[in-house]
Every structure is written in C-alpha cells, then in structure tokens.
Amino acid sequence: MNHFKPGLFDFLAELKNNNSREWFQANKERYKTEVQEPLLAFISAFAGPLGEISPNFVADPRPSGGSMFRIYRDVRFSRDKSPYKVHAAAQFRHREGRDVHAPGFYLHLEPDSVFMGSGLWHPPGPTLGSIRNAIVDDSDGWRAAKNGLKLSGESLKRGPRGFDPDHPLMDDLKRKDLVCFVNTTQKAACRTGFFDRFASTCRDSAPFVRFLTEAVGLEF
What we know:
Elements: H1 6-17, H2 21-26, H3 28-53, E1 88-93, E2 104-109, E3 114-120, H4 125-137, H5 139-145, E4 151-152, H6 170-173, E5 178-184, H7 186-189, H8 194-204, H9 206-215
Antiparallel strand pairs: 1-2, 2-3, 3-5, 4-5
C-alpha cells in the first residue's frame, strides 16, 4: 500500500517558501488532500500492526487531538513567528501518556528529511530519573533492549548527580533524550512497501520502547 505521493513533499516545500496565513488559506484544500488525508489514512492503517506490537499504544486518526501533529506552530515563546510547521509528523504513544513525553513511535515527513523514530524526546526530570534508575537496576536488560539500535539526542556533559561516575553505562546515563532514529528518503516514503518498512522498524525497536515504558511505570 502506498499512502504518500510526491505532492505531499511539494506542498511542504512550497509552504517553507510561503509560510504565511494568506498563502496557507489559499492552499488549504491542497493541504487537506495532499498532506492531511494521506497521513490520517496511514495512521488508521497502522492501528493493526501497532496493536500486534503492543495493545497499549494508540494509532488515533482524528485530525485534531490524535496521532497526527498539528501543522500550526506555537509561536508564543519563539522568535520565529512563522505560523506553520514545514513538516508533517505522527506519534504513536502510550494510551496513558498525556503528552509527547510518553514513550512512543514516530514518523517525520519533510523534504530532504524523512525519518522513523522511537523512544522519549526531552522527558521531564522525574521521568528521566526513573529511566536512569532502571538502567542501573537492570543493566543487562537495558543492553539487550537497545541492542542493534543507534541512540541519538542530547546528553549531559557530566554524569548526573547521584550516579556512580565510573558506571559502565555512563554514556547512556548522561542522555537527556532516549531516542533512536532511522533515516530514509522522500522517494522511499512514496514507494509501495514504505508502510511495511515503518511497521518493521517499529517492531525492531519494540524492546527499547518496552524498557522505557516499564521504566516510567506503564504497562507495555
């Protein structure tokens, strides 16, 4: 099944060069047909494979408040007042998660930047502390969970307080983000088979997501 077409990326590229309310309103129907509807269809279709990975993660195809991120930027605290994001994205997070700090799986669609991800991005201090404690308490389980994955994100320059500075997993204990990404291309995203590749990537990172989920006290 092929959900995405080149028109999705063409629209986002044009939006980047015309990031104004006037342009967006004039092209809103294009946004709906080329970006929103294909992504919502992808989300709806992914409910089946996601349920096989874990019944506690959600694929919600609602256009607002579901798995798809809003196209509108929050500019209240930003110097950049551009009103729209220039990418489309979806996060499939735990049903108990109230916001994006819950563990989850992620899809990012942007011209020249398409990737699949999983984990926790910028979790708050208490959540990060719980994960660090879980890594120390079950180091072998953590090594097995992240086996074969390349973790990304920001890290502390020094080890976190309260942890042995010589701990063999100090590089992971320093992490401020617990995420892994798999990069691909917009051409690949538009090919038949991308849906299956995304599902396979999520299955591969499921042990990693399971560890994080259980570390923060949720059921995988």
